[in-house]
Structure formats: structure tokens, C-alpha cells
Amino acid sequence: KPTIRTIAKDSRTNDHIALAGKNVTIVDTVYFYNLTIGQEYKLVGVLMDKETGKPIMINGKEVTAETIFKPTVSTGTQDVSFTFDARTLAGKDVVVF
Asked: How high is the pLDDT of residue 31?
């Protein structure tokens, strides 16, 4: 059965804490298990406010990212990157779904 888990980090700090700035990139590394080699998969993510459980809204839009890939191994990793203006998010806990 295919399964995944993820770990999100700031691309600049390489940590789970990001600096609230204009161009922040969060890289969500997806660890996948038991996928079919050569089959196309689509990873879709949205940034959520951990406190409210609602999507983060920047300029009236959800912060989303997606990646389509064909694994060459059945177990491995694939990155999904979110780049956005994080100036309004200082002090917030953000999670990736």
C-alpha cells in the first residue's frame, strides 16, 4: 500500500522556523513508500494556520503548490516548494497539508 509522510523546512534556514519576509520558500520533502515505478503521481499541498486549522490566505488566495513526478524507485523523496510573501505571518505556526 502506498504511503507518504512529509517534513517542511525553510529553504534559507534549512530549519522548521522561517523568517517572515517578502519571498519565503518552504520546501516540503515528501517521503514516499511503495509507489509504482514509472507511474505518474501528483503531490498537492496547501499551507494551513496551525491554530485555526484554516488555509493561510495571502492577498486573498490560498498558498498552494503541486508537483507531478514519475518515481524511478518505489521508496524515496520528492520536494514540493511553496514560495510566498510571508510578511503578515510573523509569529504564526504554519503547517503543510
From this structure: 97
